[in-house]
Design brief:
- Helix content is 38%, strand content 11%.
- It has helices at 6-12, 25-29, 35-41, 48-96, 141-151, 208-211, 217-221, 232-248, 262-265, and strands at residues 102-103, 113-115, 122-128, 157-159, 165-167, 173-175, 197-203, 259-261.
- The strands form two sheets. Strands 1-5-4-7-3-8 form a six-stranded mixed β-sheet. Strands 2-6 form a two-stranded antiparallel ribbon.
């Protein structure tokens, strides 16, 4: 079950194109027309003029065929080069995108968010999964997304086990991820942190105790141990994603007063991202 899904219940209560190179005029001019060879082989004929006249047409035809053949070969090679260049470029872009490789095709409907009017000063980290319902397949994106919609909750970003980033809500909208709570240094934010923050959901499962309000001990014990806790790919992506968000929202300071866990804002209700999350691995 999604980590922040209980909120609704509680509240109700860029490729570069390669140039195709063609045969240059000079290259065409430099092509052998075979006239000299032809003349040497036919030097005993009646006259140089007749030999040239009789040989010019077939030799030019041969030369033109050679030129056209070379043109076609060069075009074919250039086309192959374009395909390879496009493929290589696409692969390089995919490999180099990192945290910016954001899947925007998972946006949630607008009825689980609202227009933003307050400045963005905080980032809140959560964990989420569908382990309570499908413990053997707890990280199915479609299932998690459906749970958000069903419970009327949301977050701006979702980080997958391999470091994928899914955007669920645009940053200029308020997502329903934090709910009721407070931060000691920001008393005006009591029960209002949604309006001042970006919510990041991380596909992860906490300790048995931390998950006890969401699933039974039997269900927890059926989860593959490799699905519990966080992955190195996630830590790397989360740090990059935080920097990406801060670049666009400079009022967020990269410290533990402005980047917080849900369990710090609502300690009596929430346990995410939990004790298994290593803050030092994201530079905090």
């Amino acid at each position: 079950m999604v980590g922040c899904a209980n909120e609704k219940i509680e509240q109700a209560s860029e490729f570069k194109e390669e140039k195709i190179y063609t045969v240059k005029d000079k290259q065409i001019a430099d092509q052998p027309v075979l006239n000299n060879d032809y003349l040497k082989e036919n030097k005993n004929n009646d006259s140089e003029k007749r030999k040239k006249e009789s040989s010019q047409k077939p030799n030019n035809d041969i030369a033109e065929e050679q030129i056209e053949s070379r043109k076609e070969n060069e075009k074919a090679q250039s086309a192959k080069g374009e395909v390879k260049s496009h493929t290589d470029s696409s692969m390089n872009k995919q490999q180099n995108k990192g945290a910016n490789a954001i899947h925007v095709d998972s946006l949630l409907p607008n009825d689980v968010s609202e227009s933003r009017e307050k400045p963005i000063t905080h980032i809140v980290l959560h964990f989420t999964s569908n382990a309570a319902i499908t413990p053997q397949d707890p990280y199915n994106v479609a299932d998690i997304r459906k749970t958000f919609i069903d419970y009327g909750v949301s977050a701006h970003y979702l980080v997958g086990r391999e470091g994928q980033v899914y955007q669920l809500v645009p940053e200029d909208r308020v997502a329903y991820h934090a709910g009721k709570g407070n931060l000691e240094l920001f008393p005006d934010y009591e029960d209002q942190l949604n309006h001042y923050s970006i919510g990041i959901e991380i596909m992860a499962i906490g300790t048995k105790e931390e998950m006890s309000s969401m699933m039974s001990s039997t269900v927890y014990d059926s989860i593959d141990p490799s699905d519990i806790g966080y992955t190195d790919a996630q830590y790397q992506t989360i740090e990059q994603l935080i920097d990406f968000i801060i670049d666009k929202n400079p009022k967020i300071k990269k410290d533990r007063d402005h980047i917080v866990g849900h369990d710090e804002y609502a300690p009596k209700r929430k346990t995410d991202p939990g004790s298994l999350f290593d803050w030092s691995k994201i530079g905090l």
